[in-house]
Amino acid sequence: MAFIFYDTETTGADRCFDQILQFAAALTDDDLNVIDSFEIRCRLLPHVVPSPGAMVVTGVRVDQLFDLQIPSHYEMCRRIHEVLTAWSPATVVGYNSISFDEELLRRAFYSSLLPIYLTNTGGNSRLDILPLAIAAHTFAPEGFNWPVNEKGRTSFKLDRLAPANGFEHSNAHDALADVYATIHIARLIKDRAPVVWESAMAYRSKAIATQHVELNSVFVATHLRFGLCSSFLVTAIGTNPDNSGEVFLVDLRQDPAALTAMTDENLAAHIATKPRPVSSLKLNASPLFLPIETVGEKAPGYDLGMEEIARRSGLVRNDEGLRRRLISAVLKARSPFPESPHLEEQIYGSFYSRTDQSRIEEFREEGWPRRLELSGQFEDRRLRGLSRRIIYFDAPHVMPATMRADYAHAIAARIHSRTDQSGRWTTLDEAIEEGQVMLIDAPAGREAILREHLARLTAWREEAGMILDGSNTVIKTQSL
């Protein structure tokens, strides 16, 4: 199967409220030889304030953010979806992608009325090279040079790891350059840590990963948490009744007899202790399962001996009541997530109706005046809001003047300064403060770009303030 390596450069680090500014991808064959590549940039969305820190890191200038000659965000997303679909089926690969880039990409598709699960449907599967690199450091360290950060710890940042292992990465934080750096690290893992690579390849699909945990009473599961890789000998106790893609695992260092003897109250308290006696993995997020024979004593719990490990696994798997109690305790400990009032955070709500799906298809094919009509016909309020955002951002001339004024006011109110109703997005006040702090110790090479962005942000804040000051005649019915 082919691989699609991809990377994004963004306005900041928030997966919900920042946006992609640059997207790049490369198609490779099964041996990781590049067959084709693709790169695209887009303009800044009117309601997104870029972080000066992010702009300095990526080297994006003000004129690039507002250049009318490059695609809009909506146009970029449609093109990305078109290219990735044409390259599918494939394994879609990034570096720290499953927790960051993919979430940004899904939200970009969501805001553009495009199918959001492109990377793991239609025969596609997913792979993240970062946890593989961390696993290689744990189980096959001799094949690599491991850079050390300022705190004396091994750094797994791509812009450090790739150069330390022979990749010329002078253009780090350019999306296409980072794609090629990721391919380079993937090749090294494939060649120098084959057990890690082969394990990752084996469980790329949810179906195969599910089969593995069902059939194997003991296996090594590798968790990536906060940049740290931890591996444990575990047995599976079942999946989330509300999400078949989440499997629960018991660390076999736990004595099943002790777990069985606990009351429900004590069990609830115990599962919150560290290391977690019960953990979970997403079966559709390329989980890393490693052979016990390879990991051996590097996996906590191996010193119990395989006979005792097998005995404990058998006790857990044969005790349906204990497995049910453990899963129930984990689920009860989770706090419910109230629905967010912000469209960006409603991405994983209910599925759209068939009628709305048909209207989405029509929306993509029609011209802007008809799209405005369709935007008021969607049953799902998310689609009404998202479709009108697209129209206002790309073709405001088709909207009535009062609607345009409402949107201008809503954006100004959103980005000008922090309020009690704000989400996590960056406001103009915050961005200016961030840039001013950075400017104090900025080296010469960064000072110019910082001053450029600060000037634009300051002017933008004044413009937003003028809209808000003169908005008392505007009917404030529109929201973002």
Structure, described:
There is one protein chain. With about 475 residues, this protein is an alpha+beta fold. It folds into three domains: about 1-195, Ribonuclease H-like superfamily/Ribonuclease H (Nucleotidyltransferase, domain 5), CATH 3.30.420; about 205-335, Exonuclease ExoI, domain 2 (PX Domain), CATH 3.30.1520.20; about 355-475, no CATH class. Helices cover about 45% and strands about 15% of the residues. The chain contains 20 helices and ten strands. The protein has helices at about 50-60, 60-65, 75-85, 95-110, 130-140, 160-165, 175-190, 195-200, 205-215, 255-260, 265-270, 290-295, 305-315, 320-335, 355-365, 370-375, 380-395, 400-415, 430-440, 445-470, and strands at about 1-10, 20-30, 35-40, 90-95, 125-130, 220-225, 230-240, 245-250, 280, 290. The chain has a five-stranded mixed sheet, sandwiched between helices. Helix 1 runs antiparallel to helix 20 (about 445-470). The protein is globular, with a radius of gyration of 25 Å. The two termini are about 40 Å apart.
> What radius of gyration results from the CA coordinates?
25 Å
What is the CATH domain class of the largest domain? Alpha Beta
Q: Topology as H/E string?
A: EEEHHHEHEHHHHHEEEHHEEHHHHHHHHH
Summed up, the domain count is 3
Shape: globular
Uncertain residue ranges: 472-478
CATH topology name of the largest domain, in short, is: Nucleotidyltransferase, domain 5
Count of individual beta strands: 10
Provide the β-strand percentage band. Answer: 15-25%
The biggest sheet, with number of strands, parallel, antiparallel or mixed sense and barrel status, is: 5 strands, mixed
Could you tell me the mean pLDDT? 91
- Specify the CATH architecture of the largest domain: 2-Layer Sandwich
Q: Major sheet: order of its strands?
A: 3-2-1-4-5
CATH superfamily of the largest domain: Ribonuclease H-like superfamily/Ribonuclease H
